[in-house]
Design brief:
GO biological process, one term: carbohydrate metabolic process
Keywords: Membrane, Transmembrane, Transmembrane helix
CATH architecture: Alpha-Beta Barrel
Number of strands: 10
Largest sheet: 5 strands, parallel
Distance between the termini: 48 Å
Radius of gyration: 18 Å
Number of domains: 1
Strand content: 5-15%
Order of helices and strands: EHHEHHEHEHEHHEEHHEHEHE
InterPro entries: Glyco_hydro/deAcase_b/a-brl (IPR011330), NODB_dom (IPR002509), Polysacc_deacetylase_ArnD (IPR050248)
GO molecular function: hydrolase activity, acting on carbon-nitrogen (but not peptide) bonds
Protein name: Polysaccharide deacetylase
CATH superfamily: Glycoside hydrolase/deacetylase
CATH class: Alpha Beta
Number of helices: 12
Structural class: alpha/beta
Length: about 325
């Protein structure tokens, strides 16, 4: 009997560094650009190699510009993975930039990412899911294939409230970050990929997948946080999400973060993050279960591979940025 082909999914990792978490959180000392990339990247690459997976790493341009990170970032490309643009300064208020500032931000990031890895990024994800019509126009003008910045969930304001409660930010800094993790109405955005038509060209929008119907987050950080209370419940939650994706024919794009692979034994100074009370070996063990559920049900691609397949689909919706509640 001929085996039925599995549907596709994509997997990406936002390579936020220690300094970028500290900067967004309002902690002192981020200006020295402390980095855990030399610890993190070999751990993640080994994890992926063991499972024969190729994914997309969204790299912050400032990290690519620092010589101390070059070897670690080059290893990503050497292992056959894809790189994406995660902005240069990793400021979640990117949507407040002027068109000229956005163009400069993307161009500088592109240059340093390509110098460090040998790859020019063609996919973008905004820091903190920051997005605007101007960002999309600039991406199209610069020849990008895909944007992966939309996060269709109603829970963004709750995540932001928690983040602000644990931060040391001034009133002015809080104002800059007031759209961090998105708005309530982001839950009305489409869950399936679509093509964006703009004056400067077109892009495939590949949303970060949330649970169909309920629009609650399902990326690894949330599963790990649930696992602090009940690993069994956490995995049941993820399995239900994957089952709903299959039922509603959603090809999931699952997001990973560095702290999904790091614990309190690695970074006690980032204890304010959810699930950072777990040691790294427990987090990696749960990550193994999460990825196993995904690969049992889907063929996992990079972001650009996923976007190219969607671009060829005859039934992909075509939308204007004004229709997606930016």
């Amino acid at each position: 009997m001929k085996q039925r082909r599995k549907p596709i999914a994509s997997l990406s990792l936002d390579l936020d560094n220690q300094w970028s978490y500290m900067k967004t959180h309002g902690d002192e000392g981020w200006e020295s650009f402390p980095s855990y990339l030399n610890l993190l990247i070999p751990r993640v690459l080994e994890f992926l190699d063991q499972r024969d997976l190729k994914i997309t790493f969204f790299i912050v341009g400032q990290d690519a510009a620092l010589e101390k990170n070059t070897a670690a970032l080059k290893a990503i490309a050497d292992h056959g993975h894809e790189v994406g643009n995660h902005s240069f300064l990793h400021e979640p208020w990117l949507h407040l930039y002027t068109e000229e500032q956005i163009n400069t931000e993307l161009a500088i990031a592109e240059r340093h990412i390509e110098q460090a890895t040998g790859q020019r990024p063609i996919c973008f994800r905004g820091p903190g899911f920051s997005l605007s019509r101007t960002v999309l126009q600039v991406l199209a003008r610069r020849g990008y294939l895909c944007d992966a910045s939309t996060f269709p969930t109603f829970l963004g304001p709750l995540a932001r409230a928690y983040y602000f409660m644990t931060s040391k930010l001034s009133k002015e800094e809080l104002e800059k970050r007031k759209q961090l993790f998105g708005k309530f109405q982001d839950g009305l955005r489409p869950l399936k990929p679509y093509r964006l038509r703009m004056d400067a060209g077109s892009l495939v929008e590949l949303p970060v997948t949330t649970m169909p119907v309920f629009k609650v987050p399902i990326h690894a950080s949330y599963i790990l946080y649930l696992g602090v209370f009940s690993p069994m419940l956490a995995m049941l939650y993820f399995r239900c999400a994957i089952a709903l994706c299959k039922l509603f024919q959603v090809q999931p794009s699952i997001l990973l973060h560095p702290l999904d692979f790091m614990g309190c034994d690695d970074l006690p100074e980032l204890a304010f993050f959810p699930a950072m009370n777990l040691p790294s070996y427990k987090k990696v063990a749960m990550m193994s279960k999460i990825i196993r559920v995904l690969t049992d049900n889907f063929t996992v691609l990079t972001i650009s591979q996923h976007a190219r397949q969607m671009a060829k689909a005859e039934d992909i919706p075509v939308m204007h940025p004004s229709a997606i509640a930016l």
